[in-house]
Amino acid sequence: MTPEQIRACREGLRLSQVAFGQRIGVGRVSINHYENGRRHDTKQPIEISKTTDMACAAVWCGIDGYAAVLAAAERANVQVGDCSPALPSSAVEPWIVEAALQELAKRGFNLSENRLAFPLLDTLAVWSQITRWCSDRGFGVPTLHPVISASVPGVAILEFATENDALNFKMFCTRGR
To answer: Is the pLDDT of residue 140 over 50?
Structure first.
């Protein structure tokens, strides 16, 4: 994100620098530095880290931090109990998957062909069930690659160890759809 994008994100959410900083886990001074693109004391340019970029994108998408995501997933797990995880079969359009894969490649990830894509929030809501289901059946638990950026809406790329694991998971979690 650029300094202008961070400011636009904060202002679009109608948050003060203090409130926005609390949501992404930094102080008001850091938000001020990010929005101005430089430090006040040294006037040196400030680099906006990928972590800050992701935190801003998450807040924009309504995710107020990893703890909130975990709490929502735990609530969903308690409500659903031991039911099998259910995910939509084709909710992520091919262009979104391609953009997510390109974003992951920029970050240094080279994913195998044994992958599936699902909406991020749907996946996070049943993640504990996914890991339990895979473990109980002797399948490898997939690696979760969450992608949120300016060009990619929230998508979860699940990377499996084998093609068989990916096919079995897709058949079970999408009910064969």
So the answer is: yes
Domain locations in the chain? Answer: 3-60, 66-173
Confidence band, pLDDT 50/70/90 cuts, at residue 131: confident
CATH topology of domain 3-60: 434 Repressor (Amino-terminal Domain) (1.10.260)
Cα–Cα dist 7/151, whole Å: 18
- Counting Cα atoms < 13 Å in the Cβ hemisphere of 2 gives 3
Long-range contacts of 15-24 (CB under 8 A, 24+ apart): 20/59, 23/55, 23/59, 23/64, 23/65, 24/52, 24/55, 24/56, 24/58, 24/59, 24/65
pTM, to two decimals = 0.54
